[in-house]
Amino acid sequence: MKIAVVGTGYVGLVTGSCLADVGMDVTCVDVDAEKIENLHQGILPIYEPGLEDIVERNTKAGRLKFTTDLGEAVQGAEAAFIAVGTPPGEDGSADLRYVLAVAKEIGEKMGDYLVVITKSTVPVGTAEKVRKEVAAALAARGAEIPFDVASNPEFLKEGAAIEDFMKPDRIVCGVGSERAQEVLARLYKPFTLNGHPVYFMDVPSAEMTKYAANAMLATKISFMNDIANLCERLGADVNAVRKGIGSDPRIGNRFIYPGIGYGGSCFPKDVKALVRTGRESGYDLRILQSVEDVNEAQKAVLFNKVNKHFDGNLKGRHFAMWGLSFKPETDDMREAPALVLCEQLLAAGATVTAYDPVAMPEAKHMIGDKISYAEDAYAALEGADGLLLVTEWREFRVPDWSRIKAALKHPAVFDGRNIFSGEELAANGFHYTGIGVADHHPAE
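The chain above was modelled as a monomer; its predicted structure follows.
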């Protein structure tokens, strides 16, 4: 089965590589010639555990190819995935210019029946816009070539994308014809053989499913952050509360860890886009607007705690920051709380030295030399007035506290992800501040 994947970003590269790994003939397309040349040399544009190996294996086997020529990719293909970016506009709406440009070019280049599949996260109604673009391009050619447009949203977690694609919780396919359903059923047969479910539905429902899923997860995060902030005021421990509610199977224990706000390429963008879609439809999504508001406020929580600890005067203070990416196992810095925190500290007159296992090249691209970068976690601590834990990478979980204390000018730890024990740190002479828990101070 021959497949074309347009876009070699996070979604496109994972999709194309995993489909090739189950034996399909996949050609990935991108307009960025440098990115395609790098992929030919085995240089990936993103960090994702396991992806480099799967790309190398399938490229060598000849099942995975890269090109800038979309016409070459769609010739003989049964399906073409559109997996290009949909960045948010200033009003929160999804920018569809790249999706529709690809649809137009597919219509200009396709030579036989094709299922055009929107893989990018797009608002309800986008598939119909894609259909019109393809149809208009075919009409301009005077070509009567049958095609279908389907929706197949991705549900990949950054840091676990390969596992998610190969062993999905579910595969959602929005189709409008039996022929399109048959193509998608064959495409995903390697995954259904292992019992992973495929849900076929109408196209608008599939488009909405993606937004609703991300909005629900974002809601859980903001809800727990709201509860954490209240716990602090009432003397409750949010870690105990989390365990108490997470044991209820109706709630579950995932996405209820308090912290300093969600980031990344999906949740912020998708919540904004869904709020915007509701507004355009004459319906205010009040819960989701609050979810977004809580999240934006939560990104300031750690700074406020640092500022309070130093009596509102951070001028001349220096801080070590562990973690920059929005979550572990990725180098993604989009909407990362670390970006907001750095700006707040710098604006207050402080300086920052940061360390992240994989995200520092991307951070240097986004933040530049406004902050300093360390070669390892302990080097970041030298001369700092406190340690700020921003991203809960595994290597930070059991550090050498005696070494940390010796390196810091002031023994203060500000834990934005609640991975440390306040009691343990206080016993070791640290001031500890977490999220939704009482502060702990060393015994006098």
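Residues 364 and 373 are 9 Å apart (CA to CA).
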